Amino acid sequence: MKKLRIALAVLCAAAPAAVMGQGVINRPQLSAALANELVGDTVAICAKQGYKVWAVVVNLDGVRQAVLRGDGAPIHSQDNAYYKAYSTASLTLGRNENSSKEVADRMAKAAPSTVPQTPLPNVTYAVGGVVIRAGGQAIGAIGVSGAPGGNLDEACAREAMAKIQDRIK
Hints:
Blueprint lengths: L1 H20 L10 H17 L5 E6 L4 E6 L6 H16 L8 H10 L19 E6 L2 E9 L4 H15 L5
């Protein structure tokens, strides 16, 4: 009877691992607290430089996790920041790129196509999106909009990312 109980205990412990291997995907993302800290730091860093921006963090599904409008940031920049984050989270995965700038640079070098470009919803090729990584794996993205250039949006995001990088596990 004791051997039967031990066998059942081992079987029960192994069952969740077997189930997870058969169709459940666990995908990490930033916690709400860290996502909020990231958008807050990004907006603050840009504000110190005189830029009025929006910052948006999304997970790999493009779902908004945190959004912050800096004081005086233009309303249209809200959508643009989201589009940058969404595009970065989705378009960079296949090529292991780290930002919307890398996507834009790649596209600029591509040969012209005779296939008409079909606009995709929420997709932009504007600079200002940065991939969020944990253990080398992409887990989301941040998009920033409102500074007088996408390179400035990106710089604010990168500086804020550097502040939290050691806490992204």
